[in-house]
Amino acid sequence: MNIAVLEQAQSTAIDLGLKFGPKLLVACLILLLGHYAGSWAGRLTHGVLEKLDLDLSVRRLLVRLARLLVLGLFAVMALQNLGVELLPLIAGLGVAGAGLALAMQGVLSNLAAGLTIIFTRPFRVGEYIAIVGVEGQVEVIGLFNTLLSHPDHSHVVIPNRKIAGEILHNYGQIRQVNVSVGVAYDTDLNAALAGIDALLAANPKVLRDPAPRVQVATLEDSSINLAIRPWVAVGAYADVAGEINRAVVETFRARGISIPYPQREVRLLEPAR
């Protein structure tokens, strides 16, 4: 009895192998060919996109889409060769996809926002931005989140859905330092402004174009406040403000320019007799 069952199983396996073996082999060859065709399509797309002014993230996304599109086309050909009915499979995938979409609304919203950021390009990798209460230099623009490097050497990961539709401050590659210093009312303003121009010219981190702005900002009770606003590269922003403050103190001391501090004059009046 057992021998008969084994012989029947062996015969069935041979029949199935003869019937589906060649189709399975051809399907594997189609998938292998699809892999190489997808790689070729990716390289071709990358070569074409390199000639265009597109962001690195956009180029990577389009290259991946080209590979997946070609591989998916060959996968459909392989399934058709095996005799798989695609219409019921597509219908089943559609129902499963609808349920999966409901369960992954947050992920899909990040994906949609990521595609919006990649194609509208409100900022690029290497630019310094401030948004949703955080700021930093853009390191990676992904499909689901954006990675910023903070000046304190930490990293900030922002979900893309928090970026799309928000007010964005894009500094680009440079930032403007804002330093304020007060001088006494009897100060020679031309001498003070000339000293500030000289210390800015001596600082190699201060950009010459655009030119620094130095002007009288406000007139306070006990001082004339001067605004010092040079532009620097994003990476030098944290250091330059301190360097300028120190240089201002040293320059004003050397030139005899006083930096006043708040003071009040109190008069004691004798009561009338």
CATH topology of the largest domain: Helix Hairpins
What's the gyration radius in Å?
Answer: 34 Å
Number of helices: 6
Q: How far is the N terminus from the C terminus?
A: 137 Å
Q: How much of the polypeptide forms β-strand, as a percent range?
A: 15-25%
Q: How many strands appear in the DSSP assignment? A: 10
Would you give an account of this structure?
There is one protein chain. By secondary structure, the chain is of the alpha+beta class. The chain has three domains: 103 residues, Helix Hairpins (Orthogonal Bundle), CATH 1.10.287; 51 residues, SH3 type barrels (Roll); 82 residues, Alpha-Beta Plaits (2-Layer Sandwich), CATH 3.30.70.100. The protein is 52% helix and 18% strand. It has six helices and ten strands, in the order H-H-H-H-E-E-E-E-E-E-E-H-E-E-E-H. The strands form three sheets. A five-stranded antiparallel β-sheet has the order 4-3-2-1-5. Strands 7-9-8 form a three-stranded antiparallel β-sheet, with helices on one face. Strands 6-10 form a two-stranded antiparallel ribbon. Strand 8 and strand 9 form a beta hairpin. Helix 1 packs antiparallel against helix 2 and helix 5 crosses helix 6. The radius of gyration is 34 Å and the shape is elongated. It starts with a helix and ends in an 18-residue tail after the last helix.
